[in-house]
Amino acid sequence: MQVYLDYSATTPTRPEVIAAIQAVLTQQWGNPSSLHEWGERAATVIELARMQVASLLNAADPDSIIFTSGGTEADNLAIMGVARLYREPQHIIISAVEHSAISEPAQLLEASGWEVTRLPVDTMGRVNPLDLTAALQENTVLVSVIYGQSEVGTVQPIEELGNIARSFGVLFHTDAVQAVGRLPIDVQALPVDLLSISSHKIYGPQGAGALYVRPGVNLMPLILGGGQENRLRSGTQAVPIIAGFGVAAELAAQELSTETPRLIELRDRLFANLAHIPGLVPTGDLMQRLPHHVSFCLEQADGNKVNGRNLVRELNRAGIGISAGAACNSGKATPSPVLLAMGYTEKAAKAGIRLTLGRYTAETDIDWAAIVLQQVLERLAPVELVFSR
């Protein structure tokens, strides 16, 4: 029996999406910038997908959707696209639990003279809006806070944070890669100026993403050339991939009201199934949480056998795919910056795991994964696990 529980890493491409990609590859393969019939057919595909993605976000203007190669590029375009508007270094604010697609561009800006404030989080991984208010300065030009944290599942108070930024006249960006398609997102009601999304997190193809840019917000492009994507992302668009992205977005919008409650039920079932294991402690906010996301942290006395990397390997041998909460560098498990920011010890921050659910996850998958994980932990750590902060 094989069980895939790593939907936050990527999702399987839906059959409807594959069919759309195949149709474009065989029938609408023209260059969308060309003026002849072949180009016009391809351009029509792009604009349909733009409307489908815009509809998923309830964006009034489809032209506010800028297609990119994925969520990482969308994040980079948001951060660097704002920064390049200024000749002199300014001030930006991010959270301490951002994805590296945000934290690394921020580090690059910092190295070139920009001031970067990293908002702390509590033990649940949540930003305190009062900290944002206190951090804003006269030269603050951008605030970026992740919508749903990919490692621990915590959902941030985006509406409150966005309203604070807006009241100070500061642009607000959110990396919503893990939230879109799993939580309702309405950019007309939400006080965000920039929002990142990824195709392969919503059962679309890898290699496509988008940045929502609120009308009237200016950015400098990262890629220059032919001026595609409203002159913000030059290069011939990947028509088949974008078409698949559009279909995935349309299906996600149609199924959101039924799929999200189903995922929440499965998520809570898995938490309950694992609640009795000594030392296996949930991470992140259990209430303000992504609907598909389950994460834990554990720590054995010696900290050697039990770490996220080893647990991933052991469950993989049993046919279960999960993800480690810590990055791996040169074959060694390294402490998770996210867990460290939340107050965990270095030893505990090496022992984070993430189990994420999706449209093909069933109750039997959840129950089997819980049994196997307990057996693995008993084998790796026969003595009682000790959890500490």
Which tags fit this structure?
389 residues, alpha/beta, Aspartate Aminotransferase, domain 1, Aspartate Aminotransferase, domain 2, 7-stranded mixed β-sheet, 15 strands, globular, disordered C terminus
How is this structure best summarized?
With 389 residues, this protein is α/β, with parallel strands linked by helices. The protein contains 11 helices and 15 strands. The protein has helices spanning 15-27, 37-56, 71-83, 100-111, 129-135, 158-167, 239-274, 308-317, 337-341, 346-349, 363-380; strands spanning 3-4, 65-68, 91-95, 115-119, 140-144, 171-175, 194-198, 209-213, 281-282, 293-297, 320-321, 323-324, 328-329, 332-333, 352-356.
Structural account:
The structure is a single chain. Helix 6 links the parallel strand 5 and strand 6 (171-175). This protein has 2 domains: 3-9 and 257-380, Aspartate Aminotransferase, domain 1; 15-252, Aspartate Aminotransferase, domain 2. It has helices spanning 15-27, 37-56, 71-83, 100-111, 129-135, 158-167, 239-274, 308-317, 337-341, 346-349, 363-380; strands at residues 3-4, 65-68, 91-95, 115-119, 140-144, 171-175, 194-198, 209-213, 281-282, 293-297, 320-321, 323-324, 328-329, 332-333, 352-356. Helix content is 38%, strand content 14%. It contains 11 helices and 15 strands. With 389 residues, it is of the alpha/beta class. It is globular. The strands form 4 sheets. The chain has a 7-stranded mixed sheet, with helices on both faces. Strands 9-10-15-12 form a 4-stranded antiparallel sheet.
